[in-house]
Design a protein that fits this description.
The protein is mostly helical. It is built from 9 helices and no strands. This is Amino acid ABC transporter permease.
């Protein structure tokens, strides 16, 4: 317990850093993921192509490589931001590809007749998608989105290698102070467990409230 009690503020700072990365990157991933899913089912060919390229490139790019591209590439184009913001961008964009596919799968579960009925009433594609299709699709994609955001929380550990304050990175100063590396990682694992269980609990609540009975 000494490694925790004597370094509680260090663990707390890393824990809050991981929570912030998870929350902000999740919001970005959800926004981009839903947008890309809309692009992939849009009647405009150029939007479908853009959505397909976005998903294909990001799903097949190692996250570490994407971090390097964002951290080192964007400043070359004059975009200089705090490393935490760059980490949120990398995590959010990467995860959005998986959110997109989950949402698109949910859209495909909505009967075609629902969209046809909406269009017969004079609703546009945007109105049909936002008011008719997505609300129904949301009910079926709660579990996969929850799993994807849990993976995002664990993937945030990569940010520590890029000077971003997060939970895994606390082992470095603890190791320098001479604490047991094993117990340092035990408490780091407990911190990640708390975060992932919290996400699981939130999505379990959402599934009980709005999910499709199975």
């Amino acid at each position: 317990m000494d490694v925790l009690t004597q370094n509680f503020s260090l663990y707390g700072k890393g824990f809050l850093g991981t929570v912030q990365l998870t929350v902000y990157a999740s919001l970005l991933a959800l926004a981009l993921g839903v947008l890309m899913a809309a692009f992939r089912v849009a009647p405009v060919a150029s939007l479908r192509a853009f959505g397909t390229v976005w998903v294909t490139v990001l799903r097949n790019t190692p996250l570490t490589l994407l971090f390097f591209a964002v951290m080192l590439g964007l400043p070359r184009f004059g975009l200089v931001l705090p490393f935490t913001v760059f980490a949120v961008i990398a995590l959010g964009c990467y995860t959005s590809a998986f959110i997109c596919e989950a949402v698109r799968a949910g859209i495909n579960t909505v009967p075609v007749g629902q969209g046809e009925a909406a269009r017969s009433l004079g609703m546009t594609f945007d109105q049909t998608l936002s008011a008719v299709v997505l609300p129904q699709a949301f009910r079926t994609v709660i579990p996969p989105i929850g799993s994807t955001l849990i993976a995002l929380a664990k993937n945030s550990a990569i940010a520590g290698s890029f000077s971003v304050t997060e939970l895994l990175g606390t082992y470095k100063p603890l190791n320098e102070l001479g604490y047991s590396i094993v117990w340092s990682f035990v408490w780091i694992a407990v911190g990640y467990l708390i975060i992932t269980l919290a996400i699981s609990a939130i999505f379990a609540l959402l599934e009980r409230r709005w999910g499709v009975p199975r």
